[in-house]
Design goal:
Layout: E1 14-19, E2 24-27, E3 30-32, H1 39-50, E4 54-59, E5 72-75, H2 79-90, E6 95-98, E7 105-107, E8 126-128, H3 132-138, E9 144-151, H4 155-165, E10 170-175, E11 183-190, E12 195-202, H5 203-221
Parallel strand pairs: 1-4, 1-6, 4-5, 6-9, 9-10
Antiparallel strand pairs: 2-3, 7-8, 10-11, 11-12
Helix pairs in contact: 1-5
The chain binds cytidine-5'-triphosphate (CTP) and calcium ion.
């Protein structure tokens, strides 16, 4: 995409973006994860820099290269680690986009040694992880919060429910089949109830559409 040098609608904004899946360790060689590639979050980081934001990217494990010109690039593995790194940087940020596909559950205990193949069945018990975005929503203050929602059904209804429950300004809803793909079709839903469908298009263009909406909140928050 082409952005005019004079178009810097996110100028001065300290923006925290999360991307990628998380890895929840089962033992030293095995993890529970999901199909997120991190592309959407990395495209958001790249385009946000072009639009003038100071971007910090907190990323779960991906095979992607950190975009140029991000202020800070923080690699994490688990949901717990992501929570800690985001938490640390929340006060300094004007807004957060949680594009990461954070695991909802993590094994109750991680084995220090590799689990050997034995019985025909293996049961692993899981506990819920922290809802990072939910926690940020509780202490939102003047910050701009953007969530993502991945759904396989009732996309719009579930996304609106999450927008409200997590106290967000905006939510970007996508179907599960966008995971791992270069393309995406999304619904961008704002807290005032407005809804926009964007795509199918390259994730870079989807990122620009999302950040253009974000710029609206940013300009209003500065009066
Ligand atoms: N999220 C988060 N911490 C979690 C789980 C999700 O911060 N432990 C964030 C995601 O980054 C995303 C938003 O919450 O921005 C919605 O994630 P999603 O998985 O769609 O919703 P959940 O609330 O986890 O509900 P469910 O998976 O049951 O649909
Ligand atoms: Ca989830």
């Amino acid at each position: 995409i082409y952005v005019l040098a004079s178009e810097k609608p996110l100028k001065g904004m300290n923006l925290l973006i999360t991307a990628g899946p998380t890895w929840e360790s089962i033992d030293p060689v095995r993890v529970l994860s999901n199909r997120s590639s991190g592309k959407m979050g990395y495209e958001l980081a790249k385009v946000a820099v072009r639009l003038g934001a100071n971007v910090t990217l907190v990323s779960g494990p991906t095979s992607l290269v950190a975009p140029y010109f991000v202020e800070d690039f923080v690699k994490v593995e688990s949901a717990d680690q992501m929570y800690r790194e985001v938490e640390k940087r929340f006060n300094r940020s004007d807004g957060v986009i949680m594009a990461a596909a954070v695991a909802d559950y993590s094994p109750t205990k991680k084995s220090d040694i590799k689990i050997k193949k034995g019985a025909d069945k293996l049961n692993i018990s899981f506990k819920k992880t922290v809802d990072i975005l939910g926690e940020l929503g509780r202490k939102k203050g003047e910050k701009i919060l953007v969530g993502f929602a991945v759904e396989s059904q009732s996309l719009e209804d579930y996304a609106i429910e999450k927008l409200k429950r997590k106290n967000l300004d905006m939510i970007v809803a996508n179907q599960v089949d966008a995971m791992g793909s270069d393309k995406n079709t999304v619904l961008i839903i704002k807290k005032d109830g407005t809804l926009k469908r964007v795509g199918p298009d390259e994730k870079e263009r989807i990122a620009l559409a999302v950040l253009t909406e974000l710029a609206d909140f940013w300009s209003r928050s500065r009066g």
